[in-house]
Amino acid sequence: MQIKGVLFDFSGTLFRIEPVGSWLRAVLEARGTAMDRPDFDRCVRQLTLAGALPGGPHPQQVPPGLASVWAARDRSAEEHREAYTGLAREVALPDPGLYDALYERHMSPDAWQPYPDAAEVLRDLRDEGIPVGVVSNIGWDLRPVFRAHGLDELVDAYVLSYEHGVQKPDPRLFTAACARLGLDPSDVVMVGDDRRADGGAAALGCEVCFVDHLPVAERPDGLGALGLAARAREGRATGREGFRETV
What we know:
247 residues, alpha/beta, Rossmann fold, 2 domains, 5-stranded parallel beta sheet, 10 helices, 11% strand, globular, disordered C terminus, hydrolase, HAD_sf, HAD superfamily hydrolase (TIGR01509 family), HAD-like_sf, hydrolase activity
């Protein structure tokens, strides 16, 4: 195919959330809440198992009382907050105010770090005249994260699940994203880390490429290795079709 546009997932694809320990420590320090080392380590371990950090490890087990809101968590800001603060409340913390503070922290640009090659890949696509969209299952506005890290100017459109009331793999979200770029899905590549959620774009005819959801230091060139800008350039020059990954 000739690449005319690229869609990217957010968490685990372009950016990575901070580790659970850093997340908890930042909130404790901001609130002036003291916690001894054994309790801190216990809370980190339990919050990790609970899956309380959005963008972090998935819950080992979702409590029955949260099952329905968990399944729909990315369809609205309210459901997203309810799901994740509910998971955090499965862990005994010393201050009741910590649950909401932890949720607020994860929306801070300081809690997110772009992958090492994200800026270069987005810039190369911009240089090739390839429009870029971000399609994310999320319950809050991630645009400030991109602005804070200097990447907003390299994104042409954001399609966020909570703003549309549907979540990946629902094809309506990818349809909206392709429409924002003014492109037919068959001319668009979707890049993500979740084979089920991001793989939903294949139903529309998008090519889908995957990267591994790894810590930032362990994935220095996962995006660059896809060669998206080079493929777009070669496709224009020769008209040859590139590869299509089977999903």
